[in-house]
Amino acid sequence: MTTLDVDAVQAFVLVAEFQSFTRAAEALDTSQAAVSVKLKRLEERLGERLIERTPRLVRLSSRGAAFLGPAREFVAAHQRALAGLSSTPRRFVLGITDQFTSTELPILLARLHAHDPALLIEVRIESSRSLLDAFDRGVLDAAIVRRESDRHDGDVLAQERFGWFAAPTFVRRDGDPLRLASLAQTCGVRTIATRLLDDAGIVWTEVFVGGGMAAVTAAVSAGLAVAAMARTIAPVGAVEVGAQLGLPSLPPAAVVLHSTVSDPRSRAALRALAAAFREHRASL
Fold first, then answer.
1. Among 7, 28, 152, 216, which residue has the least CB neighbours within 10 Å?
2. What is the pLDDT of residues 190-242, one digit of tens each?
C-alpha cells in the first residue's frame, strides 16, 4: 500500500498555492533544493508528475490539479490530529493595519487557516502606531504594520507606495484650501502628508477624518476630497492627482512583520503568512 509523507505533501500544496518554489521554501523555513527533493520523492511515490516547472513558470500538471484538493485535506487532517493532543486550542492574535485590510486580510486569513485549521485566529485592525503599542505591551502575537520612523526592527515584507487620490470629477478652485479625507488624526500617513503640505505652503482642511476606510473611500469616490493613501487600497475609479494639483510626493514606507511567537507550529504558520503576503504583493 502506498503511504504518503505529510511533509512532502505539504511542500507540494505550498508550491501549488504559491506557484513558486522560493515562496514554498520560505513558508517551510527551508531551501528550494529541499522542497524540490520532497516533491520529487512524492512524485516517485505516487508515480505521477504533479508539478510542471520551467525557468519562468511553475504550474500544476493535470494530475497535480486533481491531487491538490485531497492533498489539502490530508495536511489539514494531520494538523487536526496534532491539535487533538492538546487540551487547549492554540490562540493566535494578529494585528494588521487598517491601510491594508481591504486587499490583504481575506487572502492572509485564508492562507493561515489552510496552513493550520486548528489555529484559533483573533484579528485586530487599527492604525500602525496603535498596533505597535499593543505589540510592545504583549497584547499581540504578531503585527503587520507600516514601519514607523522611530522603529527599525521587524521583518520587511514589502515596500508600500503612496499617492494623492481623488475622483476624476474632483475640482479644487483657485484660492480654496485642499480638502482632505483621513482615516484618523493619529494615522501616520496623515501626519506625513499634512507635514509635507505645510512645508510646501499648501493650505488644507480636513472635511472627513476618523470615519475609517469606508468614510475615506466614500469621500474620495464622491469627489468631495483628496486622500493620501497606499496605492493598493485606492478606491476603484480614483486617480492620482498629485502632479495635477502640484502636491508634494509621498515617500514609500516598508511593510513589516513583528512577532513574538516561539513555538514551532506558530512560527510555521507565521512563515506561511509572510510568504502569502509577499506573493500577493508580487502579483500586484
1. 152
2. 889 999 999 999 999 998 876 677 788 888 999 999 999 888 888 889 999 99
Q: What pTM does this model have?
A: 0.68
- Output the CA angle 12-15-20, nearest 5 degrees: 160
Please report which residue ranges of the chain form alpha helices under DSSP H: 6-18, 21-28, 32-46, 62-83, 104-115, 128-136, 188-199, 212-221, 242-245, 264-283
3-state secondary structure 8-70: HHHHHHHHHHHCCHHHHHHHHCCCHHHHHHHHHHHHHHHCCCCEEECCCCEEECHHHHHHHHH
Backbone angles phi, psi at 137, to 5 degrees: -80, -5
Average pLDDT over the chain reads 85
Instruction: Tally Cβ neighbours within 10 Å of residue 281.
Output: 17
- Contact between residue 39 and residue 58 where contact means Cβ atoms under 8 Å apart: no
Give the rounded distance of the alpha carbon of 191 from its chain centre.
Answer: 23
| The pLDDT of residue 270 | 82
Residue with cell 500544476: 60
Residues 31/21, Cβ–Cβ less than 8 Å: no
Pairing between β-strand 91-97 and β-strand 120-126 as defined by DSSP bridges: parallel
Q: Which of 174, 252, 182, 178 is nearest to 216 (CA)?
A: 182
Residue pLDDT, tens place only, 26-63: 888 889 999 999 999 999 999 999 999 887 788 899 99
Q: Read off the DSSP letter of residue 236.
A: T
